[in-house]
Amino acid sequence: MSDTGLVPVAEKVGALAAEHAQEADRTRKLAPEVVEAVREAGFARHFVAKSHGGNEGGFAELTQAVMAVGEGCASTAWCASLTALSARYATHLPQLGHDELWGSGADTFVVTAQPPLGKATTASGGHRLSGRWAYVSGVDFADWALVCGMVATGGEPEARFFALPRRDFTVVEGWDNAGMRATSSHNVIVDDVFVPEHLSFLRADFISGKNSTSDLPAHNVPFQAVGGLTFVGPAVGAAYGALTAAINAMSGKKVNTTQGVDLCRASAQIDSARFLVEQNAQVLDERTFTPRLMARCERNAAFTAESLVDAVGTLVRAAGTSGFSENSPLQRFWRDIVSASSHVALRYETAVARTWPAALTGE
């Protein structure tokens, strides 16, 4: 596992995020000092090349750090995870694009909108892009947005990613989910913006993981291998936060056998979930991208999400009415985990459609 020093710093970020979590949940915004702590910790630069001031970190280390933050605040962990992995996606840009994103520093906050919902036309030296993308997490404090659109060509349209500086897109608030409230997962609107060629790359390269610009191992990973790791790591951390909150809610009370069994069972589910998530990260760092292992990664993510929803539901039942108090972090963790686990990347249907047919025949 790489050691850039991210994990111990992330534990401090998690503690700070916990102090502001209730207010962030109420206002639907991360506190500025929490956002700055995420930046200073090194999440944004974790996968950036050392030649641009980055850390060239690995997946296992990032996963440990994200889970540490998630124990304090799931929304903060979600944004930390996404900005790290969005920067990794941006490494597919041509070298001039790297220079523009990270030329003045490696702590650029990048966010990503993966669905190809935009439309672009070829122009001299680049493309002209328009579109609207929903659920772009972390966009309130993004420096750049990486959005995907279809480009009209002489033959079949091709999907491309486009990197846009903050001045080139508009943010329209639209995130009203009951959980993960402070992720700022709002809408991004682009209206006929010119994007130079060095700020664009093919979506097919993103999917395959073949990076023609960088030969760093972490920059050459198939998207299917990453699977739901981006989204399930914050949920695992939040589950540990929920476990602590449930124990605190029951502190000083007489705990009956049923409640004890619930706590025992839920804690085992959470530990098992962590093991599966760490197993996924190990596959990415060891670069063992066989069809069966990629299928296992997606299965692990879906199963973990399902297990965490079950576990946090059990914790809520064990804690009783006090766990639903407005001032109790347990009910917030419960809402956050259920919300996070609804992501399309964490569904069995997604895992089966993308990898399991190949897994049955490949080694």
UniProtKB/TrEMBL annotation:
One of its GO terms (molecular function) is monooxygenase activity. This is Two-component flavin-dependent monooxygenase. Residues 229-347 form the Acyl-CoA dehydrogenase C-terminal domain. InterPro entries: Acyl-CoA_DH_C (IPR013107), Acyl-CoA_Oxase/DH_mid-dom_sf (IPR046373), AcylCo_DH-like_C (IPR036250), AcylCoA_DH/ox_N (IPR013786), AcylCoA_DH/ox_N_sf (IPR037069), AcylCoA_DH/oxidase_NM_dom_sf (IPR009100). Keywords: Monooxygenase, Oxidoreductase. Residues 18-83 form the Acyl-CoA dehydrogenase/oxidase N-terminal domain. It holds the Pfam family Acyl-CoA_dh_2. One of its GO terms (biological process) is L-leucine catabolic process. PANTHER family: ACYL-COA DEHYDROGENASE (PTHR43884), ISOVALERYL-COA DEHYDROGENASE, MITOCHONDRIAL-RELATED (PTHR43884:SF12).
